[in-house]
Structure prediction request, 208 residues.
Amino acid sequence: MKSNIESGNWKVGEKIPSENELTGELGVSRSSIRQAVSHFAGIGVLESVHGKGTFLIDDEVEEQSNANKITAEDCRNAEKVLEFRRIVESEACYLATLNKSPELVKKLRKYLKIMVESREDIEKFVTADISFHRAICHASGNPLLEKSLNRIFQENKKSQMLTRKTFGYHDGIHYHEQILQAIERGDAEQARSCMYEHMQNGIDKVRK
Prediction:
């Protein structure tokens, strides 16, 4: 399973093969498949959706088990979560821009493209949205930023879906485009400012 993720055979936002298919393909028991899926779900790489299947939500296969220090209850207050993200992700964006690589830009373009093409698919849109932010956090080079935000993302996906239903897609795409453009230019100050404005926009809407 790990090789399918790392090789790009499985794409972010797409459903992976079923348990039965994986059992036949990999030649292992169903219990082994379940354990593997549970592991990757626990580190924020896969997500199982009842009645729909299991989806790849991140292609960074790294151990993040130590991220689970923030409780689920902490993540349920949308305003507090956005305030936290405004502080942390603004700086993560600044650092990611300083550490900019062609690989990062390629990933961000891919996730943004999925967002633009998924206006009618809330789940796919949010999955790409989270992957965009995760890629920036990873590129910051600071594992503490990455671990804390991964925990937030794991617990906060459902509320993000509700937010998208309420507020629509335009703002999300607009701010992600601005962030990506600043990173591409290597303008760390502007990238930080765009991320701050993105989070503040969410806070303002939640408060209304």
Observations:
- The longest helix spans residues 143-167.
- The first strand starts at residue 46 and ends at 49.
- The chain is about 70% helix and 5% strand.
